[in-house]
Design brief:
It contains 11 helices and 16 strands. It has 355 residues and is of the alpha/beta class. Bound molecules: flavin mononucleotide. The site of flavin mononucleotide (FMN) has 25 residues, from strand 7, strand 9, strand 16 and helix 9. The site of flavin mononucleotide has 25 residues, from strand 7, strand 9, strand 16 and helix 9.
């Protein structure tokens, strides 16, 4: 059997596979990043940074709960069921910026020896400081910059600690400022908490982004029926495998709006190797996986890659050939072959008991 090519491209950047380890607590330090690289990730994005002390302090009040589909808390073990949802608060990297950057610089050199990348992720707080940090990232020799302007905790965090941008004009302004300051590829990570994610993506593209990452997790409120209180005590970021179809729909919308050649990166809901295929079929060129690795350990990276390459071999397709296939077959309600009277199957045939 021919082994199919798993490589993809994000603009001029070739990745050995579409699997990107998205930022999270498990990638706070060099040890976790090295494990993810060794497991075969094409890109690893260590925990994001910014200049805000409040964002750093927020890390000290983080909390995490794994929930089953009946909203019951699951034990935190390294093998959660694939449909477990993760409810959590999160904060940003606490190392001083220079220390964080130095760690990334060393790790990206190591990554290059594995035909991989370590990308620097900045979460916007103050735009002037963000621009300076982006320049420092470039000067340190990092090869990819992620600019996250859609972190879900933006509205809950202390004022100014984390910017969650939903306004297209502001997205254009922010991305243009950073674009003017650096030459390295900029991947802009956008919120999913917008009625017009594709509009935000278009603004980022027009302002000079090299790719957009679609899309940040949602905020949620989960009442605990035993304590009568909010689980974790607050609103919190929420994700699970259920988010995949919602992300895929926005990937399709973005592909239609931005054109098939503009690179999209999918995030929010990928838990398995077949989920990588699902994101690619919806138009993504690569996939950021975070919760699955955070809750399941780095072994998840190799098992996802194995399942993905097994799928490519079975279908006789390269990774690149998958991109956008299902998106480009999207029909309209009007075009569907009609099934007259099918709806009647669902009408109750027995009379309801009278009260
Ligand atoms: C605990 C946790 C911490 C995260 N921290 C960051 C972060 O620092 N920077 C960032 O860009 N995204 C962060 N994310 C978002 C993830 O990178 C990812 O985009 C998101 O969780 C959706 O993908 P998933 O369904 O694979 O988790 C975090 C997610 C989780 C669950």
């Amino acid at each position: 059997m021919t082994v199919q090519d798993t490589s993809v491209s994000i603009g001029a950047t070739r990745l050995k596979s579409p699997l990107i380890c998205g930022a999270g607590e498990h990638l706070m330090y060099a040890e976790g990043v090295r494990l993810a690289l060794a497991a075969g990730a094409a890109v690893v994005i260590p925990k994001s940074a910014n200049e805000s002390q409040a964002a750093k302090r927020q890390l000290d009040s983080t909390d995490y709960a794994l929930l089953d589909s009946n909203w019951r808390r699951l034990p935190w073990a390294y093998a959660p069921p694939p449909d477990a949802s993760l409810l959590c608060r999160s904060g940003l990297a606490q190392q001083p910026f220079d220390e964080w950057l130095d760690m990334l610089r060393v790790l990206d050199r190591e990554a290059a020896r594995r035909d991989a990348y370590v990308a620097a992720s900045l979460i916007l707080a103050d735009l002037d400081r963000c621009v300076e940090m982006a320049q420092a990232v470039e000067q340190a020799g990092l090869r990819i910059l992620e600019l996250n302007i859609g972190a879900p905790h933006g509205n809950e965090a202390a004022r100014g600690a984390i910017v969650l941008e939903r306004d297209t004009t502001r997205v254009r302004e922010i991305v243009a400022r950073v674009r003017a300051a650096v030459r390295l590829p900029i991947w802009v990570k956008l919120t999913g908490q917008s009625e017009d994610v594709a509009g935000l993506a278009q603004a980022a593209k027009e302002a000079g982004a090299d790719a957009v990452t679609i899309m940040g997790r949602f905020m949620a409120f989960v009442p605990d029926v035993e304590t009568l209180s909010p689980m974790l005590g607050t609103n919190a970021g929420f994700g699970g495998s259920w988010a995949l179809p919602l992300t895929c729909r926005w990937l399709v919308q973005c592909r239609r709006r931005l054109g098939p050649d503009f690179p999209l990166i999918g995030t929010n809901g990928a838990r398995t190797g077949l989920d990588i295929a699902r994101f690619l079929l919806s138009g993504a060129s690569a996939v950021q996986v975070s919760s699955a690795v955070f809750t399941g350990g780095v072994a998840v990276v190799s098992s996802m890659l194995n399942e993905f390459s097994g799928y490519l071999d079975r279908k006789g397709l390269t990774a690149t050939a998958l991109i956008g296939q299902a998106a480009d077959r999207l029909g309209t309600y009007q075009e569907q072959v009609s099934r007259p009277d099918y709806w009647k199957t669902f009408v109750p045939t027995e009379a309801l008991p009278s009260s």
